[in-house]
Amino acid sequence: MDGVGEELDLEDLAGIGSSTAEKLRRAGISSVKELAAISVRELLEMSELGEGKAEEATKSARELCLPKVLSAKEFLERRRKMPRLTTGSKNIDRLLGGGLEPGVTELIGAFGTGKTQLCLQLCVTVQLTENRGGLNGAAFYIDTEDTLKPERILQIAKRFGIEDEQILEGVYCFRAINSDHQFEGLREAARYIKEKSVKLLIVDSLTSHFRSEYPGRENLVLRQQRLNNFMHGLQRLVSLYDLIVVATNQVVDVPEVIPGARPARPAGGNIVAHGSTFRLWLERSKGMTRLTCIDSPKHARDTTYVTLTEGGVEDAEEEV
Description:
The protein has helices spanning 18-26, 32-36, 40-46, 51-65, 72-80, 90-95, 115-125, 150-159, 179-195, 208-213, 220-241, 269-275; strands spanning 103-109, 138-143, 171-175, 198-204, 244-249, 251-253, 264-266, 278-285, 288-295, 303-309, 312-315.
């Protein structure tokens, strides 16, 4: 989304006075751009506004910030200006057509396949200069399983020629202890994007808390609703800030295996599948990790190989 709404105060909108603007800020909406991305129903739940005022506020923001229609050529030109982030692996960058781009990239895999290692490596690469494939930005890490280890980031940074512990100052850690807290992390991330030049948001892992807090079929509907809300929160940040989001996901064993199919499936079902822009499946294979792009609106289904080393996630020779 273009930056028009960032230059205006909420009070600059027609029909928004100081009292209404203050109510919006108390609800966590500090810019016209953010207001444009909120539905009336969400705004009513978040704020003290009445329905009429909520409709007026969101409509005014959308008219100002959102283009009515773009031609495919205009959209292509806009996409060409979007950031690209190297993963630190040429094999994975090739798989993704040049690296990570704005959207939700889901890393699916069992324990020990390298999902967190790749996330920690991205905390380093996002801080690299643009001529090295980085974004000169910071990372915001929502940690739900106590996986973020600063010592490991320092180890990986050495591979990229960085010896200074200052690299850790560009990684903001939010330890989410339950699903409610995970939503709070999303709100904090939005603030850090604006104030600390955060270009990468990591959620490790996406589904852990939701699975543990809403077990069994009797809680399935509520769990999926909550997951859906969280996925939409991630997508909104992508739309607002051209943000790169990487979310790790667990796998669930499948009792009855279809011949030739994987004996597991990603947690979260269709909600997570539809909410993710790019989906990569990580599996251990002969001492390496095999990455397969299983879903993407632009990439062909393809596979590559990496190894997990002291220096992080490095390229491996592909199997024939």
